[in-house]
Amino acid sequence: MSLSRKRQKELKRLRSSAEDLWGDQQQVLDRANAVAREVSRQLSALTHEEVVPRVRTGYESYVRPRIGQARDLAATAGDGVERTLGSALGSVLSIGDIANDARVRRAVKRVSPTAATVVSKNRGPGFGSYLAIGAGIAVAAGIAYAVWQTFRADDELWVADDEPATASPSSPAL
Fold first, then answer.
1. CA 161 from centre of chain
2. Three-class SS of the chain
3. Which long-range contacts (CB under 8 A, 24 or more apart) does 126-129 make?
4. Which of 24, 30, 73, 125 could, after both became Cys, cross-link 171 (CB 3.0–4.6 A)?
5. pLDDT in tens, 65-105
6. Contact yes or no for 33/174 (Cβ under 8 A)
């Protein structure tokens, strides 16, 4: 393909302009990268100087006291439940002992001969036994699930770090 001299000059000038534009774009991109690095450094410093102390202060003044209060509340509730269940269990056992006492049976027989039926002891598991077994199974299932969640391999949680593209050798250093 033969071009006239005029066209060849124009193409040469256009090629030169395109190369100059390409060089200018590379310089702009290098400068933008340098500014982005500086912004990142400044944000990191700001985070360490301003955000972290505020978060620590908020944690110390709001979260930590509430954790202590929750712990005290749980201990108090546990003590109350323990006392209540202990009292109820003691009452049930003492009523059973009183009902099986011979003197009480004779007194009830004197008052009402038909009401003096002896309380028969239940043989075998009752409702409470089944409730305790069900609770034990639920706790074991919860523990097994927690262990499974802890030790399972979850590849989706990890993202590989890609190496950033290296800057061109003409990039200005900060």
1. 24
2. CCCCHHHHHHHHHHHHHHHHHHHHHHHHHHHHHHHHHHHHHHHHHHHHHHHHHHHHHHHHHHHHHHHHHHHHHHHHHHHHHHHHHHHHHHHHHHHHHHHHCHHHHHHHHHHCHHHCCCCCCCCCCCHHHHHHHHHHHHHHHHHHHHHHHHHCCCHHHCCCCCCCCCCCCCCCCC
3. none
4. 30
5. 888 888 888 888 878 877 887 787 778 778 777 777 788 77
6. no
